[in-house]
Write a structure and sequence with these properties.
This protein has one domain. The chain has 219 residues and is mainly alpha-helical. The chain starts with 32 loop residues before the first helix and ends with a helix. It is built from 7 helices and no strands.
């Protein structure tokens, strides 16, 4: 008498991923995260650092055209330093990110005999990549916010300038952009998401407690 075939496991819920097993190679989540970090540290950060340096050179060449030239230069130096640090963090991060396909291309004779050891090494390197990637993102995000503040200070009209109202309007736009960027950064970081979940859980518990009290009162 043949035994009945084992039931197939239920399919995963729509929109949810299966948790990775310990034997799998590590990979960024989402899958395009590595490419995005390379673009941030290798393209966006150098361009913004060059823009900040150019703006600082303009201020140094004509300080009379600006309301606070010394303070402007001091503030603009901060994003330059942060963006250069972001590029350096990106270099360090990229050296620790690779896939199973990369290892097979580099050492096809080695991966068959030492696959478990290579998976452990790749997992350790992936953790290092995550550390350097977080540092790079922090430096980049902080530079964006400080750069917005610096641009707002540069737009402030000096004494006796023409059309000061428009320049103050530009100051407000730059500050609003900096605040919006800071809020967006907060809610897209793990700490911000954790704080948001905590607030939602507290709200649900409060609503549940209020609903329970009303049911007892009505009874």
């Amino acid at each position: 008498m043949t035994e009945p075939a084992a039931a197939a496991p239920p399919p995963p819920e729509q929109g949810r991923l299966e948790p990775p097993s310990p034997g799998l190679w590590k990979l960024p989540q989402p899958y395009g995260r590595g490419v995005a970090i390379d673009a941030m540290t290798g393209i966006a950060a150098p361009l913004l650092a060059g823009f900040s340096l150019t703006l600082a050179g303009v201020i140094a060449a004509g300080p009379a055209q600006f309301r606070w030239p010394g303070a402007d230069l001091a503030v603009l130096v901060i994003p330059v330093v942060l963006l250069v640090a972001c590029v350096q963090f990106g270099f360090h991060a990229r050296s620790h990110l690779y896939s199973a396909a990369d290892v097979r291309d580099w050492r096809p004779d080695f991966i068959e005999r030492h696959e478990r050891a290579l998976k452990l090494q790749q997992a350790a390197d992936y953790e290092k990549w995550c550390q350097w990637e977080r540092r790079g993102r922090f430096a980049y995000n902080a530079a964006i916010v400080v750069l917005a503040i610096g641009v707002a200070m540069v737009m402030a009209p000096p004494a006796g300038s023409s059309e000061p109202g428009w320049r103050w309007a530009a100051v407000g736009i730059a500050l609003a952009a900096g605040i919006a960027e800071a809020v967006w950064i907060f809610f897209t970081t793990s700490w911000g998401r954790r704080a948001n979940r905590t607030a939602r859980d507290r709200f649900r518990r409060t609503r549940h407690a209020e609903t329970g009290e009303r049911e007892v009162t009505d009874a």
